[in-house]
Inverse folding.
């Protein structure tokens, strides 16, 4: 008989979910999107990578986390020229994510951590996490993108061969090769670099630019104006070994983050308004200001 997994929410019964919340486990949400990833990777790349990192995390610290099904539809309007891209409007994304987090809070989870796999999700996931805390001040929500993890950045700097990484690049392609090589079209690997990058306007997935490039200034143009194939980087230098190294680095650091996060105190608010305004606000607004939630 197959052993039941009691840290994947979709496969758990409601009593098991109740128990997990009462144990103080961190609810982990993988987040991605559906969008074009060059000629050689499937449109589910961001989802698959984030989800695999979270699944491996759950296998390593099974009693500390519960993995929530991935956020599949992200914020990708700039990729709409690529067939297969499905996007939500920014405010729809923020509100739906806010409600997902708040649902978990309602069921007793006090800590939510989103592991993001899509760059343009970052600002809207940040807002959704902030909103969730504002409307649920007895709980905490946080987010991080896998490529922002320090151990990932150090690992990548040790093996990278391509000048630029960004999208369907050496890193994402290596990760997909490690996860499911049967879906990677290696015969279609093609280097494609944004030809309009300059001293201040550039992007690299791990913020590692050649000499002479500074800042960078953030700008998100339609993807079809900066990439012919949908790729940003050189997938020809990819390997499953590199992908496995990235996954291990990400999981290793996330274990530390989760264990620290579990112990992080949730501090009560301390409104500084004087009376009678403090009492009035409690009556009118309840635990959190109505106009911000």
């Amino acid at each position: 008989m197959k052993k039941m997994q009691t840290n994947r929410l979709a496969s758990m019964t409601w009593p098991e979910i109740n128990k997990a919340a009462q144990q103080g486990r961190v609810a982990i949400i993988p987040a991605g999107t559906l969008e074009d990833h060059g000629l050689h990777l499937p449109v589910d790349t961001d989802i698959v990578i984030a989800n695999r990192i979270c699944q491996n995390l759950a296998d390593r610290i099974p009693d500390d986390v519960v993995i929530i099904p991935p956020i599949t539809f992200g914020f990708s309007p700039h990729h709409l020229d690529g067939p297969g891209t499905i996007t939500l409007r920014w405010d729809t994304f923020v509100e739906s994510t806010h409600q997902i987090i708040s649902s978990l809070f309602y069921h007793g989870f006090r800590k939510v951590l989103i592991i993001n796999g899509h760059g343009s999700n970052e600002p809207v996931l940040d807002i959704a996490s902030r909103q969730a805390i504002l409307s649920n001040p007895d709980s905490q929500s946080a987010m991080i993108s896998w490529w922002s993890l320090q151990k990932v950045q150090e690992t990548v700097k040790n093996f990278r061969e391509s000048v630029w990484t960004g999208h369907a690049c050496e890193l994402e392609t290596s990760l997909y090769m490690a996860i499911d090589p049967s879906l990677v079209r290696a015969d279609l690997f093609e280097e494609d670099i944004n030809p309009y990058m300059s001293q201040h306007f550039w992007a690299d997935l791990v913020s590692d630019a050649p000499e002479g490039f500074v800042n960078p200034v953030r700008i998100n143009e339609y993807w079809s104006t900066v990439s012919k194939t949908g790729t940003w980087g050189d997938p020809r230098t990819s390997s499953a070994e590199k992908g496995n190294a990235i996954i291990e680095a990400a999981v290793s650091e996330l274990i530390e983050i989760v264990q620290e996060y579990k112990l992080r105190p949730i501090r009560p608010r301390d409104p500084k308004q004087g009376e009678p305004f403090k009492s009035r606000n409690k009556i009118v607004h309840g635990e959190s200001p109505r106009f911000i939630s």
